[in-house]
Design the sequence.
């Protein structure tokens, strides 16, 4: 079976971008008989972005409940939190030792931080932790520990998967055997990047997200009403292709529905009315999930139990893998 793996960093509240770009396609894939799915909460990665323990815990619970509410079946999928798998940081170190520093210098997130500092006339590495720098290696370990064949992600993560491949290849080359499967990135072409309220990519870091469940139906509607539009009035034709409203609508709609919305915009539907149509379309999908989500959030101990089970399943695979690697690289234990 094809092993498919993906994760979400536990620093925020799940938003429509996470749902459309990661959770929905991942849950759909997990239902295919030929897929062996590994989905996890990336809470080691969260430490790179947040030093707020309560926020990380809360986010982990919300993200886990979101996966489950979206239809993930923990009996079918290996569903776990990264920090329950000590083999991951161990593998991170093995990989660190074969990773060229120059490779990490080119990572987008690190480069963005350096560029920002340079623009501000600061020391290039000011405020940059070694954690941020090592982000791609930790992510490579997530993927390689389970020999994932395919990694479905949004566009922003492509470089990280490419780096995981590079690192795997380097390790295989140095130690002279195919110790790791080379992972492939999977992008949902249709909905690769969902725009946020301001038209930029929907992202926690831009503070432009539309939460999937948090705040309930009213908050979803209020957020949609805040999507930035141009100044065209009702009756004036709108340009669907430059409108985030249309892009978001399309991510939730059938082709026929999207066609009808496209036409309505060209015909000059007012932005307020268009937003109401968008809200109703999203709400139709979200409402039943929100009910399950609220039930799950009321029983965090149930979520914890599911994650503990998942960790056992995940470790049953990662532990022998890491043991074999220890032997391969010269860390055989005395016994
Ligand atoms: P994260 O938590 O930033 O995002 C989780 C997933 O959601 C996708 N995504 C989006 N897709 C479409 N439109 C958007 N506006 C949007 N915003 C986010 C992201 O591309 C991602 O697929 N480093 C990863 C987590 C991670 C991981 C891994 C993923 C850690 N280890 C191993 C895959 C494999 C991250 O921070 O994603």
Sequence:
């Amino acid at each position: 079976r094809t092993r498919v793996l993906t994760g979400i960093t536990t620093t925020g509240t799940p938003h429509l971008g996470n749902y459309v770009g990661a959770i929905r396609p991942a849950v759909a894939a997990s239902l295919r008989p030929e897929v062996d799915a590994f989905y996890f909460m990336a809470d080691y990665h969260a430490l790179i972005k947040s030093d707020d323990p309560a926020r990380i815990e809360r986010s982990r619970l919300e993200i886990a409940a979101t996966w489950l509410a979206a239809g993930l079946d923990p009996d079918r999928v290996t569903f776990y939190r990264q920090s329950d798998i000590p083999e991951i940081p161990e593998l991170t170190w093995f990989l660190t030792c074969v990773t060229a520093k120059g490779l990490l210098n080119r990572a987008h997130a690190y480069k963005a931080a350096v560029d920002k500092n340079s623009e501000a006339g600061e020391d290039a590495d000011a405020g940059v932790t070694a954690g941020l720098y090592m982000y791609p290696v930790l992510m490579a370990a997530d993927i390689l520990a389970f020999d994932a064949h395919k990694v479905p992600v949004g566009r922003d993560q492509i470089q990280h998967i490419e780096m995981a491949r590079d690192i795997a290849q380097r390790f295989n080359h140095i130690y002279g055997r195919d110790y790791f499967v080379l992972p492939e990135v999977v992008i949902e072409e249709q909905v690769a990047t969902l725009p946020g309220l301001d038209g930029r990519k929907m992202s926690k870091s831009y503070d432009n997200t539309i939460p999937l469940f948090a705040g309930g139906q009213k908050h979803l509607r209020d957020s949609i009403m805040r999507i930035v539009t141009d100044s065209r009035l009702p009756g004036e034709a709108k340009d669907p292709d430059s409108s985030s409203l249309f892009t978001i609508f399309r991510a939730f709609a059938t082709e026929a529905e999207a066609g009808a919305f496209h036409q309505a915009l060209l015909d000059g539907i007012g932005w307020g009315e268009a937003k109401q149509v968008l809200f109703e379309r999203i709400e139709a999908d979200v409402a039943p999930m929100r009910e399950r989500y609220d039930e799950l959030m009321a029983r965090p101990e149930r979520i914890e139990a599911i994650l503990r089970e998942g960790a056992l399943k995940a470790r049953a695979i990662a532990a022998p893998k890491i043991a074999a690697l220890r032997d391969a690289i010269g860390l055989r234990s005395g016994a």
Remarks:
- The first helix runs from residue 16 to 30.
- DSSP finds 13 helices and five strands in the chain.
